Amino acid sequence: MELTNALCKIIQSLETMKGRKQTSLFMAEGTKCVLELLPAFELEYLIATRQWLDDNKNVSVNQDKVIEAGRGEIKKISQLTTPRDVVAVFKIPTDSVLPDNLKSELVIALDRVQDPGNFGTIIRICDWFGVHNIIASFDTVDCFNPKVVQATMGAIGRVKVHYVDNLSETIRSLSASMPIYGTFLDGENIYKAQLSGNGVIVMGNEGAGISDEVGRVITSRLLIPPYPVDSETVESLNVSMATAITVAEFRRRQF
Amino acid sequence: MELTNALCKIIQSLETMKGRKQTSLFMAEGTKCVLELLPAFELEYLIATRQWLDDNKNVSVNQDKVIEAGRGEIKKISQLTTPRDVVAVFKIPTDSVLPDNLKSELVIALDRVQDPGNFGTIIRICDWFGVHNIIASFDTVDCFNPKVVQATMGAIGRVKVHYVDNLSETIRSLSASMPIYGTFLDGENIYKAQLSGNGVIVMGNEGAGISDEVGRVITSRLLIPPYPVDSETVESLNVSMATAITVAEFRRRQF
């Protein structure tokens, strides 16, 4: 196979949601990200320099999917400022049905998180802290956006993202079997609150926070207190920071 | 005053370290960031649309510093993909001497943190958790880099960054009066470790972590445990995530 102009166009189209929907493909770049995703997703193309292919001979890859290309060619399909020596194109998995055995797990729910870097970071945090499922409102940024994929550093291969049409309804149905947490500026100090080992933790949009509709199904409102605790909170924490601190605190209780 | 071509060039030069050194100026964009920095730094220019100036009449600004400009003109000097209606240019403060009364405080030290977004986020975390001083190795990214300033969302006005020529020496001299902490993959579980209310917390470079030289002056090696704690840690946490979780844990002990 070669990197034809037609194939270049397909890969370039993966930057947009439209392109990914039309092709059911997504892309990842760089050795670390590609190697971590190879065992997790079905490979469609692996485009790499001769040097990279020589250096990674021990990696198990269907040779029919491999395309050798020069750095100049890779530059044409790369989404990065500094293109790497390898780009992989994978099939977007279709099995995104919400597992029905979630009730003993810790699950993150995202209400319209918009920034790809934030979403990627949240997926990385979930990976670190053993959170295997994320429920995302339909209007959360696409987890196969190349910027999200890169920001996960490969963690997208180990954490499942389930998009749902109606986040508040989905959470409401889960609330029968597990507590629903969210962080709010008027919540209860998370360090003093009762936290369970299972539950849904809802994180909101970067500007608007958690929507009123989703807020109504939250059973436990938490606050990450500033220090000192009575300081005037002119600021709020970024959503990925808040996720890191919240999930860490849930897990700390389980040690 | 008007936004002359010469002034445009000066402001455009503030994207680079060289430009900031030559002029001793830095820039900030957008209402939130500009309004938070106005009380903290000496204003040199405030460039804004008529509309913005009308909407912010109550803001106390030396009118000699104000330049009205159209959106097209602001676009020329903006570093943002989506320019805002206001750009402020401030003097870089010269008083960056390390305070000598640090020993009762919690201080963050950064060993060659390179990514502006990470540094900005770390400054924002410090602001939230009442950490007022950051010590940075000379080769840490410049805190007046516009990408850092924007990522702080204004917190750079409340947290002081002190660059030092020799980070390990600076930390060594502090170690006489306070403990020195750092996070390592082979450290002690932070949730079980003794943490004091004062101390220096060292965070390392994105790829290389804490340098050997700086590592040698650390008195307490900490680990943020993954979950479950014995899981294979193929990943590491991003430096700003690790800072968030670490500082949160120090402050939690003080509540």
Q: How would you describe the oligomerization state of the chains in this entry?
A: homodimer
Radius of gyration of chain A: 20 Å
Average pLDDT of chain A, to the nearest integer?
Answer: 94
Tell me about the largest β-sheet of chain A. 6 strands, parallel
How are helices and strands ordered from N to C of chain A?
Answer: HHEHEHEHEEHEHEHEEHEH
Unreliable segments of 5+ consecutive residues of chain A? none
Enumerate the strands of the largest sheet of chain A in spatial order, edge to edge or round the barrel.
7-6-5-9-8-10
How much of the sequence of chain A is in beta strands? 15-25%
- Helix content estimate of chain A: 25-40%
Structural class of chain A: alpha/beta
* Beginning-to-end CA distance, first to last residue of chain A: 51 Å
The greatest inter-chain interface is formed by: A-B, 37 and 37 residues
Q: What overall form of chain A do the CA principal axes indicate?
A: elongated
Discrete helix count of chain A: 10
Number of strands of chain A: 10
